[in-house]
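User: Please run a holo structure prediction.
Assistant: Happy to. Please share the sequence and the ligand.
User: Here you go; the ligand is magnesium ion.
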Amino acid sequence: MDKNKITDDPSQRPNNNWKSFLWTLALLLILNSLVFPNLFKPKIIPTTYSAFINKVDSGLIKQVNIDGNKIYFATPGDTIDRKGDTIDLIFQTGKMNDANLVDRLLVADSPNENGKIEFTETIPRENSPILSFLLYWVLPGAIFFFIWRNAMKSMGGRMGGNYMSFGKNKEKIYAEDEIKTTFADVAGQDEAKESLNEIIDFLHNPKKYNEMGAALPKGVLLVGPPGTGKTLIARAVAGEAKVPFFALSGSEFVQMFVGMGAAKVRDLFSQANQKAPCIIFIDEIDAIGKRRDGMTSNDEREQTLNQLLTEMDGFDGQKGVVILAATNRPESLDKALLRPGRFDRRVQMELPDLEGRKAILQVHLKKVKHEEIDLDLIARATSGASGAELANIVNEAALRAVRNESSSVTTADLEESIETVIAGAQRKGKVISDEEKRIIAYHEIGHAMVAAMQSHSAPVHKITIIPRTSGALGYTMQIDEGERNLYSKEDLENRIATFTGGRAAEEVIFNRITTGASNDIEQATKIARAMITRYGMSEEFDMVALETINNPYLSSDTSLSCSPETAARIDDVVLSIVKNAHEKAKKIIRENEAKMHELSEYLIKKETITGEEFMKILEAKK
Ligand code: ADP
Ligand code: MG
Ligand code: ZN
């Protein structure tokens, strides 16, 4: 190539091989600018059209090139010296609408050998068809595509949907590989651990089971009240088995657009198959696994459920994929999910018993700095609490210790945090008049008195008249001596009497009743009702089930299963049970009026008294 060629001649360009051309061009440009900065670059000097015509007429021009609306021309002798090289100067001027230019150039003299000006017009640049297709169609398309996709993605994220999927789910479910949770983190729940041990063994060594021809259940359903450690134990199984853990919550399946939940299930299983042995964990499975009742239809949920059923049938149980699912509403699950070959094994997670609570407290106390703790007392005071609540109590106690600037958690911190969890935080700022305080004190002492006077009631642990954020103005805390599983009819009647004791005290002492007993009334009625409708503790209805519990783990919602006439009679019997208990409570208060005054005065003065203090005053002979 002539190094002084004015423009690059397109006819010489390798059209069909644009890629190598681009590479060559890029290389040349780089070389040009790096190694020989100015070697190939002619010096271009702008000039006027008239100067150009002048030079043409004077026969001074060697070469003319018209490129678009610019005219480049070179004259011999006009050179510059650059780093030892002699470089021709190139002049540039605008192209005018000059029809005679060609004639003029043809006739003009030139310093060229043949005496003619060499002139040409550059053919307009024409990109290769492939290049222009890419440039004008594909590139803008791609840009729009990306903009649109990003917009959709952010929209989809906001609305919880996933628009951009084209049948394949982009939101991948990732397996967690190294789960640190082990069975040591799960206190109690020995039965659950035992039945899960087999699963762990299978995941360790599927061969052993295959050789025997034994197929393990594909699905294990963890069932139990909230906070009993279902999610925790599922992770622990993965941690013990040291296998990848795909965790997903049921509600994550149910997304805004039909088909996505099902796609997600497909995706999940295909990934799990590649990673086997592994665990798939579907938390809160009731979100998708709800019984298809034909009344309400939810296409999305049903498609997801159907996909789940299909996948569970389809995958090879020998391979080592185990599906765990958790729910606290097992009764609402579709029967198809529970049949053999699917979630046919059920692991029951129970609210912890006394020993269980001690163990859970111990696990969580390990995480905080603490002194010697009366575990037995705390465990007894938290009857009915779930693992999650116990974990919360320990944490609250640690927070309290920090607030009090003490160096470690004490039993008192734990006791206080139990009350915080049960009744809310203390509301020290609440203004309560002396008159109200008196009523509250007598009300609480009334409960305690009735409880103490009935040998079968649990002894009083603590009485306080410090108001709580939950709205309680005071309360009496009772702690069972041991763990109770059975309650006799008499026990229940005594408990009802204890609940009515507060109101009874108000009546006997002040001859006035207040709104303070609303919660007591609710509790007393609930027990009385259950005695008749569920425990068969009335003469009239004998052992007939009149009520069924709708959801054993979540609430004590019940539905009556009897005629309206029977329902009316139940109400009568409930009324008579509560009335009897109330009368009994009033009698106890009346008989101990002197002690009532003494105890109440003491409580007003101290605001909080322990069960021991109470019993000491009660038993002291006057
Ligand atoms: P669920 O899934 O049954 O509602 P989780 O597994 O989410 O309950 O439990 C919540 C928290 O409660 C756990 O993170 C753990 O701190 C605590 N917890 C529950 N049960 C236990 C237990 N048996 N041992 C130790 N901690 C527990
Ligand atoms: Mg859970
Ligand atoms: Zn009360």
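The longest helix spans residues 129-159.
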